[in-house]
Amino acid sequence: MDLQQIYQHVVDGEADEVQSGVKAALAEGIPADEILAKALIAAMDEVGRQFEEGELFVPEMLIAARAMQAGLNLLKPLLIKAEVKAAGRVAIGTVKGDLHDIGKNLVAMMLEGAGFDVKDLGVDVAPEAFVRAAQEGYQLVGMSALLTTTMSNMEVTVQSLKAAGLRDKVKVFIGGAPVTQDYATKIGADGFAPDASSATRVARQLIG
Ligand code: B1M
Q: What angle is formed at CA 132 by the lines to CA 126 and CA 165, rounded to 5 degrees?
């Protein structure tokens, strides 16, 4: 199976073809993480590029995202290695105003695979919901943002944790395409991860 074909089916938003392509690639022994990186994630980058160029619009972007998710669902059991849930408790969500969840879902999946007890708060998560999770005893709060306009809600959440007297009880780590280490430092987050696999490493470091 040519990974380029799966890539093109994602760009074209053809979920059934993505699923059969992923199944064929797996049957040929292509590793799940290679299919993820070279076909699924690479295709979403292309979709973003075409959107930016005005070559496609929000509905097509959404259909492509669904096609990617269809492929991702098949890879999920292979990406998650069943380990004992002992690494720590993480509450993760996409910040208020932001509906992008593919990257956040990948990070949650990798954390689960690394043995973390993960509570997925979903998308458009208000600062109060992150605060509630910290009150419930989650030791790590992970925030994702894909829009430059919603990133500022990460800072609002850090401030809300402070105001609730919880800042020294939880570690905060952040990520998402527009987010950088400099931004994490600026808003007082404890960690930043550029991708899903480094998110696991950062989470481990933060929890000590
Ligand atoms: Co949107 N969108 N979108 N979109 N979308 C972007 C982000 C954009 C860059 C496209 C572009 O212009 N090139 C642009 C943002 C521009 C900006 O702010 N700088 C954009 C825009 C403008 C918008 C709308 C405003 C469009 C509109 O309505 N006019 C709108 C906003 C809606 C909202 O959120 N309120 C919108 C809507 C959508 C859809 C709903 C159609 C759809 C999302 C569907 C879904 O998520 N269920 C969508 C999509 C699919 C994209 C692109 C094409 C792909 C995003 C994606 O899933 N990437 C995106 C362009 C792009 O990113 N190339 C784009 C694949 C994913 C695996 O990567 O999410 O980066 P990513 O996650 C990575 C890392 O960032 C990191 O690890 C992940 C895995 O390696 N990471 C973390 C992520 N979270 C982390 C958290 C961590 C650690 C690491 O710790 C906690």
A: 105
